[in-house]
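Re: export button greyed out
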Amino acid sequence: MIREQEDIIIQTICRFFIPFMQVYGLYVLVHGHGSPGGGFQGGCIFAASFILMAILYDLSEVKRRFSEKLNVVFFSLGVFIFVGVGWLCLLLGGNFLDYGKLSKILPADPVMARYYSIAVIEIGIQITVMAIMVSIFVDLLTGGEHEGAAEEEDAGSNSK
Amino acid sequence: MNKLMGILIATIALIALLHGVEDLPKWADPNQPASVHVSPRYIERAVEETGVSNVVTAVLADYRGYDTLFETAVIFTAGVAVLMLLRRPIP
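Workaround output, generated via the alternate export path:
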């Protein structure tokens, strides 16, 4: 289990870096249309900010900000967004994942409909990758024994 | 004896693979099958068909949407597998 860091240098640097990492993760996501980047990379960067947060504070801080229930919802939600876009195309009379058909409900022509739906599915990928990375990190760190929030707070208060 | 056998099998496999390398197209050959099938069309038409200036994103998320969908599904499965294998209720 990771203990809370006492070192003021690590504390200051990490506290400074975490918001920038999260903004950069979102930047990589939205900039995937024009440069290398996209959901997978952006999700990994975003998840790295939570891992840094676990190194800076202890694990209960990460779980307080990004709870286990939210995590499970998120990593289903990303895949759901992706498949949902595919199904929407199917319902509008195209093939599965044929984004051009979305121009019937979006205020855009088929080309721009493809452009926007690529952005939407990248957001889905980002959400899934971020939640899975955080989840796997937490599970591997604690060997899976981190369920109840009450135990976490007890363990945290003991270590202080 | 086992070691000798292993070396023999590895050598035979190496020779067989190297024999196969001869038939591969030349490096950066513009007429190789992979370069004349669909990739010229993707490069020519990706921007006008999808509006995305990054052709890699266009191919990854649009032309090869199934691939990306199931990559995401693989990551999802990995996460669920870790969750199911490792997580135990605290007594």
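The radius of gyration of chain B is 23 Å. The button fix ships in the next patch.
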